[in-house]
Specification:
heterodimer; A: mainly alpha; Arp2/3 complex 21 kDa subunit ARPC3; globular; B: alpha+beta; mini-chromosome maintenance (MCM) complex, domain 2; four-stranded antiparallel β-sheet; 2 helices; elongated
């Protein structure tokens, strides 16, 4: 600790978290500026960063990256503590919980695609249930659920394939270094 | 052509999860898109308390609204506007309403009809902050 000014001591994990969170936040911001035909349908690319971090660096790091992304993303978009933020947080917590549990399975039988599908469906369901209890307590909300789940299944599958390929490629790079 | 070989990205458990999720999503259409028939209607008019009418019988009601009298018709579980003193007649064109949660209204005459079912509760449409 120097006497002139505050110095924060960081370790390798902190720098990984910061880097991946910055990447996730950038994707989150880019994604939020793309118009969507139906409210609630997004490609969910920011969550793919969480998935990548989970597989390469473990669940604790993934939790850090995901929650930082939700917090900093909402601060940058001006939606902190608004309904959007609450829904975003609920989705993030639900998907972290389910992929965390799936990752606990012995011998890790589930690959990126399965994890991405589980995460996307959990994310969407948690958001709808939260929206129902906090904001729109009307049964008509659930008529949207099948459409949103279909979108989640498609985006989860495609995202999972993407993560699977990115991991294969980065592992090749790491080996060559 | 490596990008076309998608199956190689699926482990065995991934395939199982995909198929299970697909079944779940398809089931959700059947589960969430079924409708409950309505058993009564809640009618709201200016300067009156809400009126609850049963949809079991066949009957016509004349309702006094803000600009005149609207006539609604009830027939075995369904209800519709038959005539209304409004200009565009959107309420009449909206036609028969059958399901729990459905809503039809004549805005110029300030009359709304909400359908409900005895064993289901109606709460707020939406809450915003």
């Amino acid at each position: 600790m120097s006497q002139h000014g505050l110095q924060i001591i960081t370790n390798h994990q902190d720098r990984l978290i910061a880097g991946f969170a910055a990447l996730a936040i950038s994707i989150h911001l880019l994604e939020s500026s793309v118009p969507s035909p139906v409210p609630g349908i997004k490609p969910g690319l920011a969550n793919l960063v969480t998935l990548y971090v989970l597989i390469q660096h473990g669940w604790r790091l993934a939790v850090n990256v995901s929650l930082l992304r939700v917090l900093a993303g909402s601060l940058l978009l001006g939606s902190f503590l608004s309904p959007t933020f609450v829904l975003s947080l609920a989705g993030a917590i639900a998907s972290l919980a389910i992929i965390g549990l799936a990752w606990l399975l012995p011998q890790k039988p589930i690959g990126p695609v399965g994890l991405a599908i589980l995460a996307a469906l959990a994310h969407m369901s948690a958001q709808i249930v939260t929206a129902y209890f906090l904001f729109i307590p009307h049964a008509a909300l659930f008529t949207l659920l099948p459409i949103l789940l279909t979108a989640a299944l498609i985006s989860g599958t495609l995202g999972g394939i993407l993560v699977s390929r990115i991991i294969t490629q980065t592992n090749v790079l790491i080996k060559h270094e | 052509m490596i990008w076309l070989n998608i199956i190689s990205d699926f482990k065995l458990a991934d395939k199982a999860i995909f198929i299970f999720s697909l079944i779940l999503v398809i089931t959700s259409y059947f589960y969430f898109w079924q409708t409950t028939p309505a058993s009564y209607a809640i009618i709201k008019r200016p300067q009156h308390d809400a009126l609850h009418i049963s949809l079991d019988n066949v009957k016509k009601y004349d309702l006094q609204g803000a600009i005149g009298t609207s006539r609604v018709e009830v027939e075995h579980g369904k209800i519709r506007f038959v005539s209304s003193p409004c200009q565009n007649k959107l309420c009449i064109q909206h036609g028969w309403q059958h399901h729990h949660g459905s809503l039809t209204a004549c805005l110029p005459n300030r009359i709304s009809i909400q359908l409900a079912s005895v064993n289901k509760t109606i709460v707020y449409d939406a809450i915003n902050f």
